């Protein structure tokens, strides 16, 4: 069981990098590039939308959302592009990261915190 989970995790990592490469490939349609870039940016972001320290739902994005997004986006990319990018992904030694996605997620959290603070302030003030 543990080896299957480890193999699945390796496949998800490889496919994330594969989709990263496919989003940059000129043979990929624009709509597939847009979805692929969004999924990859989220998957490679060092900050999660749902932090891992939150019990149960913290790992929800890692276990369900990222693989689901990868699956959908990879269905939109032509098969020959996926095959080429998988070969390239297995040869890469360093995993890319997305600092832009980290900033977007950080902005979402800051906006949510500001909105909650405003609601609390309004409740106390009235």
UniProtKB/TrEMBL annotation:
<keyword id="KW-1133">Transmembrane helix</keyword>
<feature type="transmembrane region" description="Helical">
    <location>
        <begin position="101"/>
        <end position="121"/>
    </location>
</feature>
<dbReference type="Pfam" id="PF06803">
    <property type="entry name" value="DUF1232"/>
</dbReference>
<feature type="domain" description="DUF1232">
    <location>
        <begin position="32"/>
        <end position="68"/>
    </location>
</feature>
<keyword id="KW-0472">Membrane</keyword>
<protein>
    <recommendedName>
        <fullName>DUF1232 domain-containing protein</fullName>
    </recommendedName>
</protein>
<keyword id="KW-0812">Transmembrane</keyword>
<keyword id="KW-0614">Plasmid</keyword>
<dbReference type="InterPro" id="IPR010652">
    <property type="entry name" value="DUF1232"/>
</dbReference>
């Amino acid at each position: 069981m543990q080896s299957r989970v480890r193999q699945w995790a390796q496949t998800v990592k490889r496919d994330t990098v594969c989709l990263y490469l496919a989003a940059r490939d000129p043979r990929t349609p624009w709509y597939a590039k847009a979805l692929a870039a969004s999924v990859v940016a989220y998957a490679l972001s060092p900050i999660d939308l749902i932090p891992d320290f939150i019990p149960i739902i913290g790992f929800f994005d890692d276990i369900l959302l990222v693989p689901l997004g990868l699956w959908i986006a990879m269905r939109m990319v032509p098969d020959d592009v996926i095959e080429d990018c998988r070969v390239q992904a297995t040869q890469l030694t360093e995993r890319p990261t997305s600092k832009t996605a980290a900033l977007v997620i950080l902005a979402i959290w800051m906006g949510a915190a500001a909105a909650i603070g405003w609601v609390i302030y309004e409740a106390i003030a009235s």
